[in-house]
UniProtKB/TrEMBL annotation:
Its cofactor is Zn(2+). It comes from the Eukaryota. The lineage of its organism: Eukaryota, Fungi, Dikarya, Ascomycota, Pezizomycotina. Its EC number is 1.1.1.23. Coiled coil: none annotated. It comes from Lachnellula hyalina. Belongs to the histidinol dehydrogenase family. The keyword NADP does not apply. This is Histidinol dehydrogenase.
Length: 444
């Protein structure tokens, strides 16, 4: 049984001007201009898009300390507490990734190493609000992985320097901090200019233009995830509190006007009461201008017959955030597999993951949770392999095997690399090694 108490209503969700904006085209033009003109183009677009054009986009140590001095002591202390949570979890993840070497056959050694990426660009958005947590999630995690150099960029917010964000970037361990945002920040870090060093990898969320810039530059640099609008889905049984459901859905809907907010419940009463609470709370929420648009346009309430059906349906959404408000929330760990992050029980909310608890909030959207997890310490590591054959006998045997395997695929060059070892260590004879003269042997 599936009953829709509220379905999406995307008709008219966006204005004609929004729908007609050529985001890929605009981004491509900015990237090409920065390739051609470097810092001059970066400054041009920063002035054009953010009305920001200081003598230097990079903050000096003195400027950073001056900005941090304006941050309230309570906020400063909270930043340290949250970053300790993120760092503790990231270091535990790093510890779980061990290097190893094994002897697969006598004298044949295979190994694996986890090497940190050389340099990372961390983008901390700030279009509507200061996004302190994004600094924690990107910079702290990269440093926990052992990345030697992290360059961090964040925009001004309506012309103001976001002091608490700068403090977060500094305390997280950023090696360089730039007051620079949008396409121009991502492109400058990815391409490199005379004043901004090219990085190997870009991490961090952003708006549609930032996401598109990362998409277009992927390949030149690595990226964490292709980002879309924030998503939240709640699975609830008949004992769930409608006020909790409504509050937690709206908490995510305030990210923007295009956030899918979905409730799947086994109780029609919980569904109906949650809708009433959502309507009531959305009228008094200070960020209702965004949250109510997301709820009215992309909100869904679905009633199903039993919890197994709820978990199965939730997996088809593959939502970024999945909150479990049931009597036995840990059941979802066994029943579900497609999600960015799970939040188990009423005492745990998605906002904890977004802001303070220590797991990473950069998570897959647009059903990417079907094939990937979110940002974690492993994203900043290159897992590489190495091999060494120490035994003459084994090198020769592998040469024989390689010769047969390669010729089955018509790769004669590969086969001859194997032949050479079989000749050298097992004294096998090969026509190609004697240039057609079986009575001659090469000096190897």
């Amino acid at each position: 049984m599936v009953l829709y108490l509220k379905s999406r209503n995307v008709s008219g969700a966006f204005s004609a001007s929004q729908l007609s904006t050529d985001v890929p085209g605009i981004v491509k033009g900015v990237i090409n201009d920065i390739r051609a003109r470097g810092d001059e183009a970066v400054r041009f677009y920063s002035e054009k898009f953010d009305k920001w054009s200081p003598p230097s986009f990079r903050l000096s140590s003195a400027e950073i300390q001056k900005i941090i001095a304006t941050v309230p002591k309570a906020t400063y202390n909270d930043i340290i507490t949250v970053q300790n949570n993120v760092r503790t979890f990231a270091l535990a993840q790093r510890k779980s990734l061990t290097d190893f070497e094994m002897e697969i056959r006598p004298g044949v050694h295979l190994g694996q190493k986890n090497i940190p990426i050389g340099s990372v660009g961390a983008y901390v958005p700030g279009g509507r609000y200061p996004m302190l947590a994004s600094a924690h999630m990107t910079i702290v995690t990269a440093k926990a992985a052992g990345v030697p150099k992290v360059i961090a960029c964040t925009p001004t917010i309506r012309g103001e320097i976001p002091a608490s964000t700068i403090a977060s970037m500094y305390l997280a361990g950023a090696d360089e901090i730039y007051l620079l945002g949008g396409v121009q920040a991502i492109a400058a870090m990815s391409i490199g200019t005379s004043t901004i060093e090219k990085v190997d990898f870009i991490a961090g969320p952003g708006n549609a233009f930032v996401a598109e810039t990362k998409r277009q530059l992927f390949g030149e640099i690595g990226i964490d995830l292709p980002a879309g609008p924030t998503e939240v889905l709640i699975v609830a049984d008949g004992k769930a509190c409608p006020t909790t459901v409504a509050t937690d859905l709206l908490s995510q809907a305030e990210h923007g006007p295009d956030t899918p907010a979905i409730l799947i419940t086994t109780s029609k009463e919980v569904g109906e009461q949650s809708i009433k609470e959502l309507e009531r709370l959305s009228k008094i929420l200070p960020t209702a201008e965004l949250a109510s648009v997301s709820w009215n346009t992309f909100g869904e309430v679905i009633v199903v017959g039993w919890l197994d059906e709820a978990y199965k349906l939730a997996d088809t959404f593959a939502s970024e955030h999945v909150q479990i408000l049931t009597e036995n929330p840990r059941e979802a760990l066994e029943k579900m597999s497609n999600y960015g992050a799970l939040f188990l029980g009423e005492k745990t909310c998605v906002s904890y993951g977004d802001k303070v608890i220590g797991t990473n909030h950069v998570l897959p959207t647009k059903k990417a949770a079907r094939f990937t997890g979110g940002l974690w310490v492993g994203k900043f590591l290159k897992t590489v392999t190495y091999q060494e054959v120490r035994s003459h006998q084994e090198s020769g045997e592998l040469g024989r095997l390689c010769g047969r395997a390669a010729r089955a695929e018509k790769f004669e060059g590969h086969a001859r690399s194997g032949d050479l070892r079989a000749y050298k260590y097992l004294k096998d004879r090969f026509h190609w090694l004697s240039s057609g003269r079986p009575d001659t042997s090469p000096k190897i």
